[in-house]
Give the backbone structure.
Amino acid sequence: MLAIIDYDAGNMKSVEKALQALGEEVCVTREPEKILSASGVILPGVGAFGDAMEKLRSYGLVEVIRETVRRRIPFLGICLGLQLLFESSEESPGAEGLGILKGHILRIPEGEGRKVPHIGWNSLTFPYPGRLFEGIEEQSYVYFVHSYYLKAADPEIVKAVTEYGVQIHASVEWENVFACQFHPEKSSQVGLKILQNFIQVTGKVG
């Protein structure tokens, strides 16, 4: 069973429905025992970085997430869930992220013909092979909704990038930790294939 972490950050229902459409048993929970006994754990989310970290702390979920990673349970962050894995964000100065991965979240710069937030479909390129993208062609389109983007400290964990005035690190992978800035659950067949690839990983990593 897959566990979706419930910390009042929205977007859980669409992730749950997408996984159920793939035939997966899913629970939306903040109970540590259910999270740590799951075959895979997903941290979705939309909203502000600092507020989300406060919610994770108030529900006692920060240590649960770190323990999930320590136990090598496959873990997938989506959108804000990607950003929270890193150290800090310009959106919330002074707020510490989970710090599981090294890097910072920066605001997308305004520019001519470029709206912020970035809402819409962008194509991906793959600088390094990533397990989430097996069987997916380069230049495939996925759906983004965000005003801030990742700049990872280690380029080798970056498995997909896109361009929107700046180069956006769109997906990362490190050991059992995966994350996407875009929304696979809203990215049509490509997105479902990405989720299916994560489900495959949950059967191989332990």
About this structure: The domain at 2-202 is CATH 3.40.50.880 (Rossmann fold). The longest strand covers residues 167-174. The CA atoms of residues 42 and 76 lie 5 Å apart. Helices lie at 12-21, 32-36, 49-58, 61-70, 80-84, 188-202.
